[in-house]
Amino acid sequence: MSTQLQLMRSSRLADAAWRYQIVLDGQSAGSIRNGATVQFSTSPGEHTLQVRSLHVVNRHIGLSSPPATFTINDGEQVQFDCHAPGFAHALKQWIQCLRSDRSHWITLECITTLD
What we know:
By secondary structure, this protein is mainly β. The chain has one helix at residues 87-99, and strands spanning 3-9, 20-24, 27-32, 37-42, 45-53, 56-57, 60-61, 68-72, 77-83, 107-114. The protein is elongated and about 45 Å long. The mean pLDDT is 82.
C-alpha cells in the first residue's frame, strides 16, 4: 500500500502571483500555485511539511508557514490546506512578519486523515 499527502492552496488575493515552494522533510518537493492542489506519495512515518513564498521582502527571501509535523500510516491519505492571510488581515500580518518571525505569513493546517 502507499501513503498520500495532498496539499491544497486556497485562492487568496495576497500572494496570488507567487508560487509557494513545498518543503517535505527538509527537501524541496515542488511548488503550488494559487488555487491549486498537488498530491505526493510518501513513506509511512513521521514527516515535516512547510510551505514558503519565494518573493524577496526587505532583502530576505520569502515568508513561510510554521513547520507542521504529522504521522501517516500505510494506506492513509493526509490533506493539508495552505493560504496567505485574507485581505482584511494581510497588511497587519505583513508588518508583523517584517518586524519579527517570518514563519507565520502562510497558514498550514491539516484538514483530514483518511484510511
